[in-house]
Amino acid sequence: MPFLDDDKHQKTLELLAEAVDYLNRLPHVPATRDLSARLQAHLDEPSQMLVARRRPELHGGIFSAAGLPLLEVAVVDEVARIQYPQDLRTPDWLQASAEVRKLLAAGPVSVPLKARTGEKAE
């Protein structure tokens, strides 16, 4: 999965947090204290906090052998949402439900998830 700019930013913030932790364990001399305080102030800025708390929105699905969507899976803020596709009509829903039950009866089903990078899934 390619890294998004926010992912790179998150990794940089994590590295800075490690650096602050390390600096705080060194002997307390003015230069070390000053650098540690400046780095911590940068990490405490509201815009940095938003990126640090950001979780990618992951999406995937279970598809029939013909490639038709049977279930949609989304993981947002560590919560999984599993649902039938919204555009399924009643007869299709009944068939999708039967296919999903058959798949699950055979054992666990792996659902590959991808980060959603735009407003619509690809």
Overview of this structure, please?
With 122 residues, the protein is of the alpha+beta class. The protein has two domains: 49 residues; 58 residues, no CATH class. Strands 3-2-1-4 form a four-stranded antiparallel beta sheet. Strand 2 and strand 3 form a beta hairpin. The longest helix has 21 residues. The two termini are 14 Å apart. The relative contact order is 0.12. The C terminus is likely disordered.
Output the keywords.
rod-shaped; 17% strand; 4 helices; four-stranded antiparallel sheet; 122 residues
Query: Considering DSSP H and I runs of 4 or more, what fraction of the residues is helical?
Result: 40-55%
Proportion of residues in β-strands: 15-25%
How many domain regions? 2
Helices, by number, come to: 4
Stretches where pLDDT falls below 50 for ≥5 residues? 118-122
Question: What's this model, at a glance?
Answer:
The chain has 122 residues and is of the alpha+beta class. The protein is 49% helix and 17% strand.
Topology overview:
Blueprint: H1 5-25, H2 30-44, H3 46-53, E1 58-63, E2 69-76, E3 79-83, H4 90-105, E4 114-115
Antiparallel strand pairs: 1-2, 1-4, 2-3
Helix pairs in contact: 1-2
